[in-house]
């Protein structure tokens, strides 16, 4: 069994991670290690080093995120019992799947949880549309967060914290769908350079079946098309209605999938 | 170069690489692509891409990536 320890020196850790990536290890860590410095400082990251690789564990409110760095032939090693579920989220090409394969993670106690696929729409494929767009207000932040928490699974939905959400609201990055004053749905988006990314879209139960979701996506496209090269989003593969909506609007899969596996150690 | 074009086309069939000089700056290649690409290039060309070389300038165009590969092969 591996031994988990705190990271004593964030700078050295970042250098080791960069070195591992430069050698072409298999990993699900796509950020730069420097971005994780604050978490190292706060003591939220721990690690385990073993023959053939390394795990890093990032403790969050509801879960522990696992990042692996494995040499080419190395197999995943068992993760010790922890008091929160361990979440393993990866990004892979659909045609080649993840490496190590799912069976290798299942052999050490992980289970399939969900899978998303990425869709894109090139701006060149969109047409200008005049739409009356309304935005959510800053005082709606808590309502919006509650609607998100009710609508999405708790571990990997990239929900914002209240501070981030307030910033997005102030920056007009949350589009609203209303009936009178009542908020029936919203779409939160962000920008990754010239790519406009849909982060969350929610339609309240009483608003469903009225084209509100489609209207919000059309608003987003109309709003962002002048400043973007493409639109991008992740959709759960077990959500056919959403998939159908995006396909209707011209979105296509770009070959990227994100399977999520879970180890529920805490229930043992 | 042919192998590089094949790796890129398989990695991102949705991206038009020809003449594109801002693959990273525009956000069309993201960090997942870079990490995947580094692994593939190490395998294909038997090179190690040091952390100092993993910068946007080296991945913004096919030509820049190819220049990086050639430089590391000569080292």
Which descriptors would you attach to this protein?
heterodimer, A: 268 residues, alpha+beta, Aminopeptidase, 14-stranded mixed beta sheet, 24% helix, globular, B: 75 residues, mainly alpha, Non-ribosomal Peptide Synthetase Peptidyl Carrier Protein, Chain A, 0% strand
CATH topology of chain B: Non-ribosomal Peptide Synthetase Peptidyl Carrier Protein, Chain A
Stretches of chain B where pLDDT is under 50 for at least 5 consecutive residues are none
User: What order do the SSEs of chain B take from the amino end to the carboxyl end, as H and E?
Assistant: HHH
Number of helices of chain A: 7
Question: What is the assigned CATH homologous superfamily of chain B?
Answer: ACP-like
Overall CATH class of chain B: Mainly Alpha
Structure, explained:
The complex is a heterodimer of chains A (268) and B (75). With 268 residues, chain A is α+β, with helices and mostly antiparallel strands. Chain A has two domains: 5-115 and 259-267, 3-Layer(aba) Sandwich (Aminopeptidase); 123-257, Aminopeptidase. Chain A has helices at 10-22, 37-41, 102-106, 141-151, 162-170, 212-224, 240-248, and strands at 5-6, 26-27, 45-50, 53-59, 64-70, 86-89, 92-93, 111-122, 134-135, 174-179, 182-192, 195-203, 230-236, 252-263. In chain A, strands 1, 2, 3, 4, 5, 6, 7, 8, 9, 10, 11, 12, 13 and 14 form a 14-stranded mixed sheet that branches. The radius of gyration of chain A is 20 Å and the shape is globular. The mean pLDDT of chain A is 93. Chain B has helices at residues 2-11, 31-45, 62-74. Chain B has a single domain (2-12, 19-74), classed as ACP-like (Non-ribosomal Peptide Synthetase Peptidyl Carrier Protein, Chain A), CATH 1.10.1200.10. Chain B is mainly α and 75 residues long. In chain B, α1 runs antiparallel to α2 (31-45). Chain B is built from three helices and no strands. The chains are: A alpha+beta (268), B mainly alpha (75). The interface between A and B is medium-sized, with 29 and 27 residues.
């Amino acid at each position: 069994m591996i031994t988990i320890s705190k990271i004593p020196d964030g700078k050295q850790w970042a250098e080791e991670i960069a070195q591992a990536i430069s050698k072409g290890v298999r990993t699900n860590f796509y950020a730069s290690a420097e971005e994780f410095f604050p978490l190292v400082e706060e003591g939220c990251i721990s690690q385990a080093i073993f023959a053939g690789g390394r795990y890093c564990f990032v403790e969050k409110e509801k879960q522990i995120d696992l990042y692996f760095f494995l040499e080419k032939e190395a197999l995943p090693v068992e993760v010790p019992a922890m008091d929160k579920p361990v979440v393993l989220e990866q990004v892979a090409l659909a045609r080649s799947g993840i490496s190590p394969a799912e069976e290798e993670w299942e052999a050490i106690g992980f289970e399939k949880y969900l899978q998303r696929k990425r869709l894109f729409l090139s701006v060149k494929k969109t047409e200008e549309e005049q739409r009356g767009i309304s935005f959510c207000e800053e005082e709606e932040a808590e309502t919006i967060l509650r609607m998100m928490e009710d609508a999405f699974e708790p571990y990997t939905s990239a929900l914002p914290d209240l501070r981030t959400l307030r910033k997005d609201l102030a920056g007009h990055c949350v589009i609203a769908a209303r009936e009178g004053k009542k908020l029936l749905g919203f779409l939160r988006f962000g920008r990754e350079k010239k790519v406009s990314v849909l982060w969350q879209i929610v339609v309240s139960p009483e608003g469903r079946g009225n084209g509100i979701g489609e209207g919000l996506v059309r608003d987003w496209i109309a709003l962002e098309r002048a400043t973007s090269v493409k639109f991008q989003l992740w959709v759960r593969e077990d959500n056919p209605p959403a998939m159908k909506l995006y396909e209707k609007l011209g979105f296509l899969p770009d070959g990227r999938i994100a399977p999520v596996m879970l180890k529920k150690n805490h229930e043992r | 170069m042919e192998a590089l074009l094949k790796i890129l086309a398989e990695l991102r069939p949705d991206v038009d690489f020809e003449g594109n000089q801002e693959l990273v700056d525009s956000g069309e290649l993201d960090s997942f692509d870079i990490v995947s690409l580094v692994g593939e290039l190490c395998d294909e060309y038997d090179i190690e891409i040091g952390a100092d070389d993993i910068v946007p300038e080296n991945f913004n165009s096919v030509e820049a990536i190819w220049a990086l590969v050639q430089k590391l092969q000569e080292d």
